[in-house]
Design brief:
By secondary structure, the protein is α+β, with helices and mostly antiparallel strands. It folds into 3 domains: 201 residues, BirA Bifunctional Protein, domain 2, CATH 3.30.930; 109 residues, Anticodon-binding domain (Rossmann fold), CATH 3.40.50.800; 63 residues. Helices cover 36% and strands 28% of the residues. It contains 14 helices and 23 strands. It has a 7-stranded mixed sheet, with helices on both faces. Strands 16-15-17-18-19 form a 5-stranded mixed sheet, sandwiched between helices. A hairpin with a 5-residue loop joins strand 12 and strand 13. Helix 2 packs across helix 6. It is globular, with a radius of gyration of 25 Å. The protein binds one RNA strand through helix 1, strand 11, strand 14 and helix 10.
RNA sequence: CGGGAAGUAGCGUAGCUUGGUAGCGCGCAGCGUUUGGGACGCUGAGGUCGCGGGUUCAAAUCCCGCCUUCCCGACCA
């Protein structure tokens, strides 16, 4: 197996190499489509599981809406259709004949879900209505990249209806912080900046968009998740109304929010190194791999017992007994796959009563008594988790530059390969246009202390400027 | 969709300038020897040279069109 391109030599090539060599995904036969292979899908299932738990804890329920949406639905909200029409896939034929009304393959489900919310919601007693769906969506992409931007991708999209604007806003922010930020920071070990999108970067049809922005190891920003406050735009167009306790017919206030398979791209690019993936233990489908050094029944029995004990201690463990393949090859392969802890089991371990454990994040090796493995490994996993978050945090801090003028910010973001921060009052819509000329965008707006700006006057905010995926 | 680069076995590539019927490395299969950081030997399988058309006695090679991938832009989770 040939080695992967180094990050420094060519970051995009490194990214491609990692995806193919770790067998995460392949390109599909139709441009922009992707085949997610078992290891990649295992990661997605871990992401789904963790998020689903948090989404349900936030009160939302899962449901499923159709893939095909009447084209006319999209046209009901003008900004929405303007935003999406260039990237729609439209079905014009079915059952061997031309359809009376073309159906679009959902690029997102705001419209169809609203059509049903309008039907289901009558009274303030029906609110809030909190729905989530796990689905695939299609947006015809001009420049696809595996996980980051594919024509078809998997995601969850939450859609909620509320009795007041404040409640809707609070819920959009609750999802952003308690579901997305919490998951990204504590499970993915990716520190994210939560902030508000500028008008230019907002979701088509939203009144406010809130975002989680992560920094990748090439210094570029990646939008990892968004939560939108939709106001009453969709409810006005779809006639989604409820009666208040006073008997007044009122349009609901809504939110929508989503994260996608793009998170796999974030995971790869936020933590990966020249040896391949580095998976945070909380997320890793395999947390510990036990490598049997040579074919021997005592070694195998000891390894099996260790695996059993670790499983009972709650670790996700796999045994590598493929002694036919050389030791070096196997080690390289497990490093490539990013498994956080590797335990080596061979004659030496039997003789000394110690096992060798190797940590993927720092590539350090330690020797510990076999008998303490079950207590040490879970602690090690936890310290790797914290170490990776800390490392990602330092990397981001080292690549974040305060600036005072627009030119200064642009230069620092480009030269320093990272984020530049500058008072939003120095940028504005005109400034965003100028930044775009050098390939930069305002990723989001935050308060001066970096927290989420809720209902604050824009003039006091700080803009995060960066190149973005 | 605009600008650039490239498509030859699963992957990486030679051959193309100067047309003559495809080679190498890795990987893969079988057998044997190995086994603590990408093992070795022997044997073997695997190719519509991206697709379509044209020129020619003859095309991987020359010409035209298209498709795909990567990079840079515009668009986006």
């Amino acid at each position: 197996m040939s080695s992967i391109t180094s990050q420094q030599a060519d970051f995009p090539a490194w990214y491609q190499d990692v995806i193919s060599k770790t067998e995460l995904a392949d390109n599909g036969p139709v441009r922009g489509t992707m085949v997610i292979r078992p290891y990649g899908y295992a990661l997605w299932e871990r992401i789904q599981g963790e998020l689903d738990e948090r989404i349900k804890a936030a009160g939302a329920q899962n449901a499923y809406f159709p893939l095909l949406i009447p084209e006319s639905y999209l046209h009901r909200e003008s900004e929405h259709v303007e935003g999406f029409s260039p990237e729609l896939a439209v079905v014009t034929h079915g059952g061997g004949r031309e359809l009376e009304e073309p159906a679009v393959v959902r690029p997102t489900s705001e419209t169809i879900i609203n059509a049903y919310f309008a039907k289901w919601i009558q009274s303030y007693r029906d609110l809030p209505l909190l729905i989530n769906q796990w689905a695939n969506v299609v947006r015809w992409e001009l420049r696809p990249r595996l996980f980051l931007r594919t024509t078809e991708f998997l995601w969850q999209e939450g859609h909620t209806a509320h009795a007041s604007a404040e409640e809707a806003r609070d819920y959009a922010i609750k999802i952003l912080q308690e579901v997305y930020e919490d998951f990204m920071v504590h499970v993915m070990a990716v520190p994210v900046i939560t902030g508000r999108k500028t008008a230019r970067e907002r979701f088509p049809g939203a009144e406010e968009s809130w975002t989680c922005e992560g920094m990748m190891r090439d210094g570029k920003a990646l939008q990892m998740g968004t939560s939108h406050e939709l106001g009453q735009r969709f409810s006005n167009m779809f006639g989604t109304t409820f009666q208040t306790p006073e008997g007044v017919d009122t349009h609901v206030w809504q939110t929508s929010w989503g994260v996608s398979t793009r998170l796999l791209g974030a995971l790869i690019m936020a933590h990966g190194d020249d040896y391949g993936l580095r998976l945070p233990p909380e997320l890793a489908p395999i947390q510990v791999v036990i490598i049997l050094i040579s074919p021997d029944s005592t070694i195998e029995a000891t390894g099996m017992q260790l695996m059993q004990e670790l499983k009972e201690a709650g670790c996700r463990v796999e045994m590598d007994s493929d002694t036919h393949t050389s030791y070096g090859r196997r080690v390289t392969n497990w490093e490539l796959k990013g498994v956080p802890v590797r335990i080596e089991m061979g004659q030496r371990e039997l003789d000394t009563g110690n096992v060798t454990i190797a940590l993927r994040d720092t590539r350090e090796k330690q020797s510990i008594p076999v008998t303490s493995t079950v207590t040490v490994v879970p602690k090690t996993l936890s310290s790797i988790q914290h170490g990776m978050l800390k490392q990602a945090q330092s990397f981001r801090d080292e690549h974040t530059y305060p600036a005072t003028t627009l030119e200064d910010a642009a230069e620092k973001a480009i030269e320093g390969k990272g984020f530049a921060t500058i008072p939003w009052s120095k940028v504005g819509d005109k400034g965003e246009e100028r930044l775009a000329e050098s390939g930069l965008t305002v990723r989001c707006l935050v308060t001066e202390d970096g927290s989420l700006p809720v209902g604050m006057d824009e003039k006091d905010l700080l803009a995060i400027i960066a190149k973005a995926y």
